[in-house]
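thought: fold this chain, then report.
action: predict
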Amino acid sequence: MLTIKRVATVLSNYQDDAYEKQEGGCGRNCLGKCCLPKSTLPLYAFKKDQEDSGEHGVMESSKEQPQLSFLNLLLGQWEDRMRRGLFRYDVKNCKTKIIPGEYGFIAQLNEGRHLKKRPTEFRIDQVLQPFDDSKFNFTKVGQEEVLFRFEQSNDCKSHFLDTALVTAEPNNSPNVIAINVSPIEYGHVLLIPHVLHCLPQRIDHGSFLLAIHLAKEAADPFFRVGYNSLGAFATINHLHFQAYYLEMKFPIEKAPTRRAFADEGLQDREVIVSQLLHYPVRGLVFEGGKSVQDLSDVVASSCIRLQNNNIPFNVLISDCGKRVFLLPQCYAEKQALREVSQELLDTQVNPAVWEISGHIVLKRRKDYDDASEAYVWRLLAEVSISEERFREVKVYIMEAAGLQEITKLKENKIDHAEEKLHQKEDSICRQPANQAEQHIPHDCMVLH
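observation:
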């Protein structure tokens, strides 16, 4: 059994090791079965897919207010929780800078994120582990940390209700969006699918599609959604995704790619799978598809195949759900085997989805002041799996999605097609949504 010791990130104010379940209800107005049924929570209902529509994230309000954007609503609710004092620190006071160099890695100094926390031992050699109700999970979160429920609408319009009853039906387990009380960036939230079902941290088709819809509904390329598997620095074994707003392009989003698989197998879906080039972490990029469902199904099938083969991975959902990065990694395994240098370990960076994407959260001022592109490259190079192991991953992906590996004879045609693809401006997502700007304070970041 392989384990590492690390400081668990506090995602909720109720994340207390001493918490004990109470039979008669906890009396805390939590998200558990003792309190959530028959409670009222705000509800955002996103509209059913209309692939030819560009009006994602525009809703009708229950109080006949002017139309609002989804991202505007989310950031406004997030700021409300900030005013209520629910966060452990003010992330707007954290310094951020672009590290000089070719890639433009982003460094943040966040000295409060792991303050006064003791290291905890985590098992990192099992990607799939059963849900354990005795440990902290999101049913123990207080409802004041929830922004709203996130469900699919019954029609082709998005709706927002200030209050909506959570019924006590056995199969009714709401999806909720809650704050991360230890935010990395502005608007940092958690998407918790079917919270009452107590799903372990593993990808399934329905939940991944929900995460794609979250990115799509935001309709802004600077709002990204991320996922960490167990063994890839997820610390809570209760299914959740993370998301936040950062008005900078991530280095991974700028990295060149090359088509990894031939069209055979995905002709009907039009999903393109490429691999990253000239980036310190090996990974695959999924994009295109005739529908949101097509892209989501291919990525979810690939993730399921990796987790069933015990391969830790991270996922970044980018470009309003139009691009998805799948990033197998081995840093925690190397750490457990004592194969990571002490210099890197001393920085206490846990390279999960945001760090791999190029947003490096540093806990010590010295590391922030000395941060260089060479340091980030060394760190992320340790995260990346070997070329041999990456070939094995691609075989799993081919099996999961019914793909064929690319041949040399097709490379010239593919290169030309890729160039046209990446030049195409086909989405509202290429520019940030204007509605969100009124909620983004100018002092959100300090750039040097």
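thought: worth noting. The first strand starts at residue 3 and ends at 7.
final: tokens above.
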